Amino acid sequence: MSVPQHSDSSAIILFGATGDLAKRKLFPALFSLFRRGLLPEKFAIIGTARKELSVSAFREYVLQTLREFGRFDPAENEWWNKFAPHLEYVSVDATYGESYSRLKSTLNRIETEIGLSGNRVFYLAVSPELFGTVSQHLKTSDLLETEGWKRLVIEKPFGHDYQSANELNKEIRSVFKEEEIYRIDHYLGKEMVQNIEVIRFANSFFEPLWNNKYIANVQITSSETVGVEERAGYYEKSGALRDMVQNHMLQMVTMIAMEPPSRLVTEAIRDEKVKVLRSLRGFAVDEVKKYVVRGQYAKGVVGGTTIRGYREEPGITPESTTETYVAAKLFIDNFRWAGVPFYIRTGKRMPIKSTEILIQFKNLPMNLYFNKYGDLQPNILSIRIFPLEGIYLKLNAKKPGTDGVVSPIPLDFCQNCEAGYNSPEAYERLLLDCLHGDSTFFTRWDEVALAWKFVDPISTAFREEKVELLQYDAGTWGPAQSASMLKEDGFRWWPINPEKELHEEKEAHFVRM
Fold first, then answer.
1. Cβ distance 344 to 328 under 8 Å?
2. Could you give the C-alpha distances from 155 to 68, 163, 248, 384, in angstroms and in order?
3. What pLDDT band is residue 369 in, cutting at 50, 70 and 90?
4. Which of 117, 197, 352, 459 minimizes the number of CB atoms within 10 Å of its CB?
5. How big is the chain by its Cα radius of gyration, in Å?
6. What value does the mean pLDDT of the chain take?
7. What is the pLDDT of residues 255-291, one digit of tens each?
């Protein structure tokens, strides 16, 4: 996983340069990398889209996006003045092969003027339906004929099921080699997701316990407070299952459950993640309802404000059966994890926005402290990914006083609570990894394929209405059946965003006797 400190001179060709992803994430990430001195000394960013824009108008557009979405300090305009000359623009209709000649001539001119070495990153921030089309046009227009390396970055969703993903992969692979394809999952760029490896493999008191002998269950939550917003067209086709479970949620499962890699190198790490997906117990269509809860948010009241239901959102039909919430109980059938349930849940219009992984350790024998010296709770390790980054460990200790009462105490480390500290955005890290040629935290084709093969039967069960679509009020934690799924196993969902719980536990532990 070691990468060079500086990447080679490169041209970054950004398709969809006037789109939402480029505006909110890519331009702020590239500007931040530039300010931190992590982009090559010689580089060019060439934006392309169907819209006709002059180069000066494009640069003004990027400046406005940085002011709105980036870490842009108006008092430091000299950074922008240095960054702006690296921006170019050319209008390209991605579906029309002839227009790629304009991109080719612009790219050749810029590489000659700046003295670039021919390294090219093609970032497709466009509709997934265009991935194959753009790849083929890049080939036929000779844009891939270069003395340097070439890399293709594509966003999810990669297909809408295994068959479509496989067909798309064949089309792209007819142009690019597998090692040239960077399938981006921005969750893998988050600081604490990448920190999972270190927490596990660099601490002797965790790795020996990281198995079915000591762990009772694993809970992974990714919750959003927002509704569908302006993504009705996309979301109606995907739903929470395709939008979140097939990629983000399963990627976090693999990071938690993987075996130690033989070496900290890209393919060794990705090999272990693939092994987890191969061990993931699949569901037959008729048994999905035993392991999966499906929900859709209805009208609710949040903070005194009435929130409309999903079927009342603009662009959504009143009869929509698209799920906005999925909870599931997963099993990894290998030696390490046999019998340990992995509970996952993701949804919209939930009480807080948070992404968190909780590991609940098994209880000790209760003969010593059970029902005698207080409430003996299980030990919990929480890996907090967003918005707080850090680790939270719940232990049992004696409360100060003479009665020997045992109460839970928290050990809490918040990484991004320190004044002046900002973790790099996920896209910053992943863009830099791509420039360095490090694909560790990008998804390989066999990962994508196995994830779709797991999700497809669930999707079929949803489509055939073999799993009831349950309504839940906006601002709640989803259908009650989600909690029942854990209760049947003797567990419960542990609180997410433990700041309130942390405060209460500290107060309870240090209360004056």
1. yes
2. 23, 18, 12, 24
3. low
4. 352
5. 25
6. 90
7. 999 999 999 899 999 999 999 999 999 999 999 999 9
Check residue 460 and give its pLDDT: 98
Structure tokens at 146: 């270069």
Give backbone dihedrals phi and psi of 21, rounded to 5 degrees, phi first: -65, -45
Nearest to 106 by CA among 58, 154, 152: 58
What gap in Å lies between CA 194 and CA 252, rounded to an integer?
10
The CA-to-CA distance between both ends of the chain, in Å, stands at 53
What kind and span of H or E run contains 249? none
- Give the ranges where 386-496 is alpha helix by DSSP (H): 426-436, 445-463, 480-487
Q: Which residues are catalytic?
A: 248
Distance, CA of 120 to CA of 351 (rounded, Å): 43
Task: Please tell me the distance from the alpha carbon of residue 325 to that of residue 480, in angstroms, as a whole number.
Answer: 12
What six digits make up the tokens of 171?
């089309």
Range with the poorest average pLDDT among 121-135, 276-290, 491-505: 491-505
The pLDDT tens digits of the residues spanning 158-176 come to 999 999 999 999 999 999 9
Model confidence at 500: pLDDT above 80: no
C-alpha–C-alpha distance, residues 1 and 261, integer Å? 12
Q: What amino acid is encoded at 195 in this protein?
A: N
Rounded CA gap, 234 and 216, in Å? 37
pLDDT value of position 4? 42
What is the DSSP track for 168-234? HHHHHHTTS-GGGEEE--GGGGSHHHHHHHHHHHT-TTTGGG-STTTEEEEEEEEE-SS--TT-HHH
User: 65 vs 27, 43, 162, 176, CA distance in Å?
Assistant: 8, 20, 36, 32
For the residues 367-374, what does the mean pLDDT come to?
61
C-alpha 47/C-alpha 32 separation (Å) is 17
Share of the chain above pLDDT 90, in %: 77
Between CA 404 and CA 398 the distance in angstroms is 6
Q: Which two tokens stand for residue 120?
A: 């090219």
Dig out the tokens for 210 from the structure: 């990281």
Q: How far apart are CA 359 and CA 364, in angstroms?
A: 15
- Report how far residue 374's alpha carbon sits from residue 58's, in angstroms, rounded to the nearest whole number: 65
As a whole number of angstroms, the distance between CA 7 and CA 40 comes to 6
